[in-house]
Amino acid sequence: ALELIDFKNALEQFQNLVEKMIIQKTKEISGSYTKDDEEIDYEKFYTTTQTLFGPAVKHQNVQAFFRKVMSNPDERPEWLEIFGCFTGESDGMSSPSKESMVLLVSEKRQITHSVVKRKDVIKGIVKVPLQHFTITASQRGVLTVFSKKRKSFFSYSFYFHQDPTWINGCDFLPNLNYVVAVTESTVILWDYKSKESQSDGFVIKPMKNCLLCVSTVTMADNLAKDTILMGDDKGYVYLLTITSDDFIMKQSKAEKESQFKVLDSESFNIPKRKLHDDWVGKIRYFSALKRFGSCSTDSINSFILDDIKRLEDQLPVKEFSVPKGVNAFTYCGKAKVIVTGG
C-alpha cells in the first residue's frame, strides 16, 4: 500500500512536469516564451524522471517520450510510455486501471542465465503455454528449458555432443512429453525431465538430407504418440509419427558416455514429398486451420498451405508464389489472415 501511494505521488509530480513542458513548448511556438531558471530541457527532464521512478525507466524510453512532447505538444503521449508500455486504440472494451498496468510493468523479468557460449547462437525458441515454459536450441547443441514456477525462472539444459553438426530447430512433443530438435542428419528426442548429469533420450538417424526445420502437429487426441513435420535442404517436407512403443521396440544400445539410445530411421515409415525447389526455411502446423504451412526462397512454390494428408499422396497442393520466395510466415486467428515475409 505504501509503495502504491509513493507511486501515485511520483506519477502526479511527473504529470505536473509534463504539463510545464507543454506550456513551455506552446509559448516557444507562439514566440512569447522567455528563458528563465525554470526552463525544462532534456537533461532536467531525464534527471527528474530518474529521481521519481528510479531504474524502472530506461534512457531510450525517456528520450522517446521527451521527443514526442516537444515535437507535438497537442498530442501528448500516455504516461505509460515512460516505462516502455504502449496502449493501442480503444476497441470499446473497458481499459484496465492504471494500477493494474503498473503491475504489468513490475512483472517484467530478465533471464540472466547464460545458455550459450561465445560464437554460439540461438536457432530456435518455442513457447509451451500448457507447460508454462519456453524451449531454446542453440546452433552448437545446447537445448534449454526455461520454466516459470513460484514466480521465478529456472532452467535446465544439456549439451548434445553426439553429433558435430549444428542444430537447426526445435519444438515440443505434448503427448510424449519430449523436446524434439533436428540437426543436419539426425532427429533428437530429449527427455528434459532427466537430470542434467544423466540426460537421456533418443536419436533417430541417419537422415539422408540436411534437416532445416521442425514443427509439432497438434491433434485433439491424447494418445501416446506425436507427429512432427520437418523440412530439408532439397525442398522435401517429411511426416514422422512417433509412439511410446517405438522407444521400446526400435532402440539399440546407448552409445558410450551417453544415455541417448539410437533409433534406426529405416525402421520408421516417414512419408515425404518435394514441395519446393529450394531450401525449406520454415514449417508449422496450424491446429485452428487443420493445415500445415511451409515456405522457401523458391520463387514459384514459395508458400504451401494444405492438409498433412497431401504428404502421403500426390494430389495438388495449395501454393502461393512470391518473387525471391518467402522467409517467414505466421497466422492470426482473430483476423483470419496469414502474413508472409520475403
From TrEMBL:
It comes from the Eukaryota. Keywords: Repeat. The keyword Glycoprotein does not apply. The keyword Repeat applies. InterPro entries: WD-EF-hand_domain (IPR051242), WD40/YVTN_repeat-like_dom_sf (IPR015943), WD40_repeat_dom_sf (IPR036322). SUPFAM superfamilies: WD40 repeat-like (SSF50978). This is WDR64 protein.
